[in-house]
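Predict fold of Rrf2 family transcriptional regulator; 143 aa.
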Amino acid sequence: MLITRECDYAVRVVRALAAGGRMSVGDICDKEFITAPFAYKILKKLQKAEIVKGFRGVHGGYSLNRRAEDLTLYDIYTAIDPEFLIIDCLEPGYECPRNGEGDHACTIHCELCKIQKELCGMLKSSNLKDLLPSDFMEEPVDS
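Predicted 3D structure, encoded as tokens:
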């Protein structure tokens, strides 16, 4: 499946952090019904993609590292699954015995390429600020 449970939970993590300020992993888990081991795995990937910022120490936790208007579902999904393909045959280097050149091109593959492009465009078209209620959002923490 294209949008995995991990991708779905990553959106939940970002949604929790969109309320502003720092949150502990425990608070994120309680708010979004995610297990701590899974949350840590997701936060590590989101941090690597510079979507969230981690803080160490007694008052540590996580916060958004980007403004809500600069963050899309596509950004979140590709932070978790960089390939983010609807089917394996769209993967670069994949050699399908049914897909040839010109008149021998796989019409299914061609259609799936169009769908993939459209889906990515749609996921890039709305930012997080557009998707969440305005009273829910705050700006990322600078500290």
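The chain has a mean pLDDT of 87.
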